[in-house]
User: Which sequence fits this backbone?
């Protein structure tokens, strides 16, 4: 369990290079032997507006952003101020400093760029008083001036990292290596000089904080990547060689990673006119024998509804990824939420026949995306990977060994021409691709261009060779066959073990969650147990077909259960009640829908509130059980 | 050994092979122009040396969408307006396939208009047949994007206040590289044009006038028609974009004045999308679909991508 860890926040203007600096910082810590986790917060603007990234590092695996943070590097916002609009922007430039203070923990450290942040305005913000109250240690440094002395103001990022290293008593060797890897020539030399000088200047300061970076050793080689990386890499390792899409935050990350890598993997990426086309292209490619995917975020996914149903009806395998952000409509474009659950389960006309999986963390994202491709192509139906801005954007260190697996390019239940020679055909030589009696509901498909495989795929209900039919007997047989796939898939998923338990086998209290909250909940459970609470947790990934066995087993064993999810209407709790038909009086909900992720402390407090009968503080909503 | 032996097979197919052996009873009304599209397509495919199993016919929704039920090949009867995105991905996945998309005027110029514009722009090597009967037939006679201004229907009881879409001009502006109009009443020309369109290496758009005797009784039967190539009034170069545009404008305008001008309107030999994409290195030289049957060796992220994260 993590008692203390570095929670470093770098804040500045959007467009100031906060992202790349934080990644380098985290990577250096990882190379130094620490486990790292990043949390990214940014506005929906290219330049202007404030952004921050947190890097949490510890000598044991880090599972969440943690509560608040304990080191602030405030670079100021060099893009905020329009000189002609002083009245409107006011002290916008110092916001990257003052906006952060509410979440800064006691005994925290502040380094701010006095070369950019207006000292007089800073003085008016009662920073000194608050620092005294909270025992913050404030170190103003002219990072901008230091960078300017070496040629380019933009290098104040590097200066900030140098100062951080000195104040935390870290060796700068890893930072130097990263600079050498990323840059060359004069730029590299200048950055190295800035790093060194900032380090020396900060090392010369009189300090009294106690925060230090722990020492760590991984034992195995580590890689640092985002959830979006893991999803894209799983797709590539599943033999996916076609992606079609339209940009939309936050799904764009997966689309970009795939587009950058597909050409060297011999594949094709298509950016198309809209998400209807995106889903339809994936269907067209898959129908023609290629393992294909598409994806979007909520609004774009809404446009995919009709092609999604077409894939279900024509039994064309596709994988769609849906990266949730806060809705409804445009909502909070760069903020996280889990409110598209019902949308993804049920969108498109008719009864749903799809697999929906929501991984709990980065390694699950890799493993379960692979499993989703396998199921989609074996069972010829849409597989939807449901994740969110949180999982897609957060970076973690992970053992490289996790990815050392054989690729799985098998296209699933597809026939070769040799198979087709022995397959059943109708009197006119059409392959009975939609026969009524497939094993586990699946009839292997042929692929256009194969001799002996001709058939008609249609969005209408159809006879075994594909001809449109409204015959009631045929209709029922085809519906029953298609839907029976879900029974077979449920059995396979029960074996796959996607639901993750945490804590002892038995406990009086439970916390149930789904998707990307999982590890935050587990961290909260560790704390609750340390304080004497008898609680354990389950993180659910499989959403359709619903994991009845696992969840009913978990809920049967506890007296009360808190269901944690990031939406306002308790969608997963509702789904659970609907699927299991009981446990309504066992479950309460802890909900968050302000665009931010849960901190473990909020879950701890929410759990205590259910027992004490209090209302939790902060931006969370506690909905007590409504009975069955 | 190839995994798709139908593709490029050295075999002459007959017109009869493109007729399903167990033919479903067509649901088209007697006198419907759609029969002429079916017949022309059945005639054109053997003429250009294609066999049923190397053709993928992707259709939309409406009476026109039934084409794939009555034509023997691989078929994909998709959803309203979305035949083109399904079809063009199939062409990218396996360029050896002969891909034909078909749909009605509501399908192609209305609900699927965005896909029409972009598929034309990208110049995929495929043929797109639009059954243009100036009406929504299967849903029983509503005003369509090509219905004339003033057209009365149950959904426009006082007459449409909208000018119709100009399909040929739209195709030209969007980037189609072969554009023609033919009519069900002119079967010989229709088959010739379809054969040319299939042979054309790029996006070939055919606005096919298909009379609807049931729901558009007021409309002309598209007779008499004039082949614009035989009309002395129109001497223009089909490879000249400006001249083609003027001819299209006339043909589109005069259709609503009772004069049916058909024929070839535009041809451009620019590279198809597949060629362009291969040239940028973003599309493999060999058909992607073949890999899943032929390749033993697949790339691993563990060998190629994980290192950059360490």
Assistant:
């Amino acid at each position: 369990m993590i008692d203390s860890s570095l929670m470093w926040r770098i804040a500045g203007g959007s467009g100031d290079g906060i992202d790349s600096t934080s990644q380098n910082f985290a990577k250096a810590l990882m190379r130094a032997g620490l486990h790292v986790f990043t949390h990214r917060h940014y506005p929906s603007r290219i330049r202007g507006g404030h952004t921050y990234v947190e890097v949490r590092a510890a000598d044991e695996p880090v599972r969440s952003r943690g509560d608040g943070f304990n080191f602030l590097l405030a670079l100021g916002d060099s893009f905020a101020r329009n000189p002609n609009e002083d009245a409107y922007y006011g002290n916008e430039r110092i916001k990257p400093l003052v906006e952060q203070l509410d979440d800064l923990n006691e005994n925290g450290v502040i380094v701010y760029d006095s070369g950019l942040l207006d000292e007089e305005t800073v003085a008016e913000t009662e920073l000194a008083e608050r620092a005294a109250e909270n025992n913050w240690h404030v170190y103003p440094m002219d990072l901008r001036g230091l960078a300017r002395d070496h040629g380019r103001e933009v290098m104040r990022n590097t200066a900030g990292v140098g100062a951080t290293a000195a104040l935390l008593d870290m060796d700068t060797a890893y930072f130097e290596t990263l600079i050498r890897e990323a840059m060359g020539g004069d730029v590299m030399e200048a950055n190295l000089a800035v790093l060194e000088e900032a380090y020396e200047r900060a090392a010369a300061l009189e300090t009294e904080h106690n925060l230090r970076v722990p020492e760590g050793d991984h034992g195995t080689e580590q890689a640092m990547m985002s959830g979006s990386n893991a999803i894209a890499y799983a797709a590539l390792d599943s033999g996916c060689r076609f992606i079609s899409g339209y940009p939309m935050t936050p799904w764009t990350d997966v689309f970009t990673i795939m587009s950058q890598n597909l050409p060297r993997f011999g594949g094709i990426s298509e950016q198309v006119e809209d998400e209807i086309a995106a889903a339809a292209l994936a269907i067209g490619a898959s129908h023609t024998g290629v393992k294909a995917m598409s994806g979007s975020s909520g609004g774009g996914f809404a446009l995919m509804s009709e092609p999604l149903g077409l894939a279900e009806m024509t039994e064309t395998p596709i994988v769609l990824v849906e990266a949730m952000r806060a809705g409804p409509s445009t909502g909070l474009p760069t903020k996280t939420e889990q409110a598209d659950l019902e949308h993804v389960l049920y969108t498109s006309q008719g009864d749903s026949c799809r697999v929906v999986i929501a991984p709990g963390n980065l390694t699950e994202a890799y493993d379960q995306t692979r499993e989703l491709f396998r199921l989609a192509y074996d069972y010829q139906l849409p597989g939807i990977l449901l994740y969110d801005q949180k999982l897609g954007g957060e970076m973690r260190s992970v053992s490289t060994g996790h990815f050392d697996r054989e690729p799985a390019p098998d296209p699933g239940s597809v026939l070769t021409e040799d198979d087709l020679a022995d397959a059943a055909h109708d009197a006119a030589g059409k392959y009975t691709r939609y026969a009524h009696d497939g094993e586990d509901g699946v009839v292997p498909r042929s692929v256009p261009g194969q001799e002996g495989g001709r058939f008609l795929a249609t969005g209408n209900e159809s006879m075994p060779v594909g001809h449109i039919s409204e015959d009631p007997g045929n209709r029922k047989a085809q519906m029953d066959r298609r839907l029976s796939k879900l029974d077979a898939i449920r059995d396979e998923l029960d074996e796959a073990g996607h639901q993750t338990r945490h804590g002892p086998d038995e406990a009086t209290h439970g916390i149930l969650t789904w998707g990307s909250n999982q590890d935050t909940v587990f961290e909260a459970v560790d704390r609750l147990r340390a304080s004497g609470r008898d609680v354990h947790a389950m993180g659910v990934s499989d959403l359709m077909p619903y994991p009845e066995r696992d969840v009913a087993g978990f809920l049967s064993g506890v007296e009360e259960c808190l269901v944690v999810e990031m939406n306002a209407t308790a969608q997963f709790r509702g789904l659970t009640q609907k699927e299991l038909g009981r446990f309504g009086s066992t479950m309460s909900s802890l909900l968050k829908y302000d665009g931010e992720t849960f901190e473990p402390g909020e879950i701890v407090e929410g759990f205590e509130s259910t027992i004490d009968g209090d209302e939790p503080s902060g931006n969370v909503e506690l909905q007590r059980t409504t009975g069955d | 050994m190839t995994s798709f032996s139908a593709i490029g097979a050295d075999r002459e197919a007959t017109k009869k092979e493109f007729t399903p052996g167990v033919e479903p009873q067509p649901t088209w009304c007697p006198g419907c122009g759609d029969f002429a599209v079916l017949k022309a397509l059945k005639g054109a495919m053997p003429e250009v040396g294609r066999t049923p199993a190397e053709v993928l016919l992707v259709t939309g929704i409406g009476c026109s969408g039934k084409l794939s039920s009555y034509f023997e090949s691989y078929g994909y009867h998709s959803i309203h307006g979305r035949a083109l995105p399904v079809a063009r991905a199939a062409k990218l996945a396996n360029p050896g396939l002969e891909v034909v998309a078909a749909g009605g005027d509501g399908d192609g110029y209305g609900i699927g208009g965005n896909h029409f514009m972009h598929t034309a722009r990208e110049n995929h090597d495929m043929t797109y047949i639009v059954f243009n009967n100036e009406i929504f037939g299967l849903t029983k006679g509503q005003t369509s994007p090509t219905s004339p201004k003033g057209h009365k229907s149950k959904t426009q009881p006082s007459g449409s206040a909208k000018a119709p879409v100009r399909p040929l001009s739209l195709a030209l502006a969007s980037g189609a590289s072969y554009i023609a109009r033919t009519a069900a009443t002119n079967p010989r020309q229709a088959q010739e044009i379809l054969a040319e369109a299939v042979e054309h290496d790029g996006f070939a758009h055919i606005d096919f006038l298909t009379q609807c005797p049931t729901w558009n009784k007021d409309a002309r039967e598209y007779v008499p028609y004039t082949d614009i190539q035989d009309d002395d009034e129109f001497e223009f170069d089909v490879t000249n974009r400006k001249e083609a545009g003027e001819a299209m404008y006339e043909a589109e305008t005069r259709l609503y004045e009772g004069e049916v001008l058909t024929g070839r309107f535009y041809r451009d030999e620019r590279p198809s999308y597949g060629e362009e994409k291969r040239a940028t290195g973003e599309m493999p030289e060999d058909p992607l679909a073949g890999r899943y049957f032929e390749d033993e060796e697949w790339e691993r992220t563990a060998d190629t991508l994980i290192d950059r994260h360490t």
